Amino acid sequence: MLVTGATGYVAGWIIRRLLESGVTVQATVRDPSDTARLRHLTDMAEAGPGRLHLFRAELLSPDDFADAMQGCRVVLHTASPFKTVVKDPQKELIEPAMLGTRNVLMQAAKTESVERVVLTSSCAAIYTDAADCADAPGGVLTEAIWNSTASLDHQPYSLSKTLAEQEAWRIAEGAGFRLVVVNPALIMGPAVGGKPSSESFAIMQRAGSGEFRHGAPRLGLGIVDVRDVAEAHLAAAFLPQAEGRNIIVGHQTDLLAALMTLQPTYGTRYPLPRRPAPKALLWLLAPRLGLTRKFVSRNINVPWRADNGKSRRELGMTYRPLAESMNDMFQFMIDEGYF
């Protein structure tokens, strides 16, 4: 089995579960000689019954995945940047996501052993803003909906995930493998090691350092635990009935409500939020906060709704409590010196 982007937040948990199950994992990284960055992966391999083989690969190099993919029946393509503040969205988000997906899936189409490809997409390929939920049938997002509102100027990360997933379906049509797509909401929870660069950790670091001490926005969103996302990938990889797109979300909530779950354990030691930030004030200060007023209007105090029924029925998913995900993540970040 091949896992791309092995040093990533989600990929780390996938690899851990595979190694624990005795699976031989072939994984791609940018630099196999960077022993410090890869230590958590090699430690897992030494502790588990499975075997880990690392291969050098760059997302934008079309020929880099051939050796890593040889002999693999399943490819899990997890590698893709997740950041919301960029200078050049085309270069920093669109090209790595779309071209990386194209390079991996085109190689899968040429590799006879590959029977299934699992793509890590996102709910961002389904919607841009929480306000989009109101336009969905019944006010609830489903796998049948595609994001049609993101652009290079508004939420380019969502555009990158949309274009990458559409490219994957285009390549899979007529190919010799089955494509199964995992569409998680905002992923939270502890990492298996190191300091991931995921936007999720940036959000939590801002909370723990006191940026929201006077109030956190009621930003409508869905949240899912990273360990549950890993389980969804395994189900997508191995279950015979797994197919199509799969919304992976455990909780329909907002940012303040999620951060409030940290109060009982950490509220006396860290400057965590206790109240909502007024939407009108956020709208007024949006440019100074690095936000657009369009984003504030369409996401703050706007409920987010999505149907995770397909993941429960077909992938057998169950979801951890929100407080468990948030508290485990916060403690991990304390232990790793984020605050």
UniProtKB/TrEMBL annotation:
Keywords: Oxidoreductase. GO terms for molecular function: oxidoreductase activity, acting on the CH-OH group of donors, NAD or NADP as acceptor. The keyword Oxidoreductase applies. Residues 1-242 form the NAD-dependent epimerase/dehydratase domain. InterPro entries: Epimerase_deHydtase, NAD(P)-bd_dom_sf, NAD(P)_dehydrat-like. It comes from the Bacteria. It holds the Pfam family Epimerase. Gene3D superfamilies: NAD(P)-binding Rossmann-like Domain. The keyword Coiled coil does not apply. PANTHER family: NAD DEPENDENT EPIMERASE/DEHYDRATASE, VPS9 DOMAIN-CONTAINING PROTEIN. This is NAD-dependent epimerase/dehydratase family protein. It comes from Paracoccus caeni.
